[in-house]
């Protein structure tokens, strides 16, 4: 089994993931901060394909123009020397106190204008470094109390912002797509467009829906108690799976951002199997961070672990698809499968008149226990 990542695997990490210094609401950082250039080298050592960033992961919010130029030059040189790519970029619209009530949906119109201003500059920066995907995670776009904001008005503000930014990208002639990243809560009490399904419905109301897709994240759907694979599959089927954030998360807990596959192995398996089976060709972005117990050796182990687990599960998916016992059960389960007849008045009348043996339908056993147990044994390495 070859578990060495290659560029074709499209494994990427954000500067904020391997660069996470281990601060949490209860404790100070446990790792010293590395510069963006140092982080590029850490990622190159682990075999990643690309590095993503928020504008301020790279250029501090109060940097002067000449500082910005120097930072971009140094970063570009690090990318060139390591062959790392920047496939995706995003805006930090959550850290600065100006965004305490949200960015595009803030009640203060000056904040909304500043959010557009900051995002246009951040888009320019991302495009300058080669990004073709732009992620929007609305971390502060929400409320603690519904007394404070009209939720329908908030959605309208969101729409105005996306229509503005799509027009900006088109006007600049950038080759850039947008991916919305839903999350149900944290840091706000409730965040708007909380799930992949909500984002998909919203996209169809935009001026340029063809430019906009989703960036689902494992942890975010799990925080809402939802089936992540089903959300991903719906996005894929709608042609909207533009990007994906891989990590892991125990249900019912705080926002954990654990190493991919470290909690729900079977869920991770079916996700990888789906992405590989359908031929998803986008980035596999690990939006996670190392345990707070780790030093930078541990951070590298964390990054390598995300990629290795993905590759192991990809190989397991290949075995699952080739396994004769599993395939025989699938053939049995799907026997007699035929597409539904197209509607015609005659077809409908014939279907209405058709007799059904309801008791026989209900009596048919389905070998799902066997199929799932075979899956478990294959994953446990005893098959
Ligand atoms: C989170 C989010 C973020 C975003 C990032 C890119 O829970 O904090 O997942 O990590 O993915 O801001 O937009
Ligand atoms: Mn997240
Ligand atoms: Mn994310």
Task: Please characterize this protein's 3D structure.
With 383 residues, the chain is an alpha/beta fold. The chain has two domains: 7-318, Alpha-Beta Barrel (TIM Barrel), CATH 3.20.20.150; 324-380, no CATH class. It is built from 15 helices and ten strands. Strand 9 (244-246), helix 10 (265-278) and strand 10 (284-286) form a beta-alpha-beta unit. The radius of gyration is 23 Å and the shape is globular. It starts with 10 loop residues before the first strand and ends with a helix. The model has no long low-confidence stretch (mean pLDDT 97). The site of D-gluconic acid has 10 residues, from strand 4.
Shape: globular
CATH classification class of the largest domain: Alpha Beta
Oligomer: single chain
At the fourth level of CATH, the homologous superfamily of the largest domain is Divalent-metal-dependent TIM barrel enzymes
Produce a short descriptive summary:
By secondary structure, the protein is α/β, with parallel strands linked by helices. Helix content is 48%, strand content 9%.
């Amino acid at each position: 089994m070859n578990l060495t990542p290659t560029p074709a695997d499209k494994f990427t990490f954000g500067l904020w993931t391997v660069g996470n210094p281990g601060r949490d609401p209860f404790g100070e950082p446990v790792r010293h901060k590395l510069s963006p250039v140092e982080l590029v080298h850490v990622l190159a050592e682990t075999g990643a394909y690309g590095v993503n960033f928020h504008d301020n992961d790279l250029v501090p919010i109060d940097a002067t123009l000449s500082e910005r130029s120097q930072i971009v030059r140094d970063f570009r040189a690090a990318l060139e020397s390591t062959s790392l790519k920047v496939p995706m970029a995003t805006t930090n619209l959550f850290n600065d106190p100006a965004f305490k009530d949200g960015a595009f949906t803030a009640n203060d119109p000056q904040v909304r204008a500043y959010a557009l201003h900051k995002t246009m500059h951040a888009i320019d920066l991302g495009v300058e470094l080669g990004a073709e995907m732009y992620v929007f995670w609305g971390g502060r776009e929400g409320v603690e109390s519904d007394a404070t904001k009209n939720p329908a008005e908030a959605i309208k503000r969101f729409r105005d912002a996306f229509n503005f930014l799509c027009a900006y990208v088109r006007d600049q002639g950038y080759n850039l797509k947008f991916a919305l990243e839903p999350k149900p809560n944290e840091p706000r009490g409730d965040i708007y467009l909380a799930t992949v399904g909500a984002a998909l419905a919203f996209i169809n109301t935009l001026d340029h829906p063809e430019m906009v897709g989703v960036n689902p994240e494992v942890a975010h759907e799990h925080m809402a108690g939802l089936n992540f694979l089903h959300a991903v599959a719906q996005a894929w089927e709608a042609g909207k799976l533009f990007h994906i954030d891989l990590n892991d998360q125990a249900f019912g807990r705080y926002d954990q951002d654990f190493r991919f596959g470290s909690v729900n192995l079977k869920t991770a398996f079916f996700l990888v199997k789906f992405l590989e089976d359908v031929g998803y060709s986008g980035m596999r972005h690990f939006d996670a961070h190392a345990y707070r117990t780790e030093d930078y050796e541990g951070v590298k182990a964390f990054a390598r672990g995300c990629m290795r687990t993905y590759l192991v599960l990809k190989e397991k998916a290949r075995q699952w698809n080739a396994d004769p016992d599993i395939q025989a059960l699938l053939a049995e389960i799907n026997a007699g499968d035929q597409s539904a007849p197209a509607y015609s008045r005659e077809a409908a009348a014939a279907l209405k008149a058709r007799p059904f043996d309801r008791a026989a339908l209900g009596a048919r056993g389905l070998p799902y226990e066997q199929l799932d147990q075979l899956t478990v044994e294959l994953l446990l390495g005893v098959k």
